[in-house]
Amino acid sequence: MIEVPVSLPHHAPRRRDGAYIWTTWLSPLLAGDATCAWAVWFKAHYTYTKLSTFDASAWQAEHQPLLLATRNALEADDFTVLTENQNKFVLRSGEITLAGKPDLVAVRGSRILVVDCKSGTARPAYRAQILTYMAALPYTHPEWKECEVEGLLQYRDGAATVGASELNTTFRSLLHSTVHLVGGPEAPPRRPSIIECRFCDISHADCPEREEDLPDTVVSGHDLF
Question: Is residue 216 part of a domain?
Answer without folding.
Answer: no
